[in-house]
Design brief:
Oligomer: single chain
Helix content: 25-40%
Distance between the termini: 22 Å
CATH architecture: 2-Layer Sandwich
Number of domains: 1
Order of helices and strands: EEHEHEHE
Largest sheet: 5 strands, mixed
């Protein structure tokens, strides 16, 4: 998995690409720390258009992001999920946690 985080004012976009699996779990704390460092951020878009696969460990990143968003009134939107990634997130009922566009 590769990721890029871009911040502009009080908004940020997190782009994820490639497979998001157990093997990428050591990267999660770094991503979460970068998100936490933007104290003024109140809107986060997670771009998944280039994400090719996600397993249950990969989905745990979204649970951590959800928990963090609840602590800081952060609106999180998920964009571009398709194919097996969209199916996995739908089966896990993530649409009840985030806005999907």
């Amino acid at each position: 998995m590769k990721y890029a985080l871009k911040t502009t004012g009080n908004a940020a976009q997190l782009s994820l690409s490639g497979p998001l699996t157990f093997a990428e779990a050591p990267t999660f704390p770094k991503i979460l720390a970068e998100l936490d460092a933007s104290k003024s951020m109140n809107n986060l878009e997670i771009q998944l258009g280039d994400l090719t696969f996600i397993d249950s460990t990969g989905m745990s990143l979204f649970v951590h992001i959800y928990d963090a968003s609840q602590n800081r009134n952060l609106k999180v939107s998920v964009l571009g999920a398709s194919g097996p990634v969209a199916s996995a997130l739908e089966r896990a009922a993530f649409k009840t946690l985030f806005e999907f566009k």
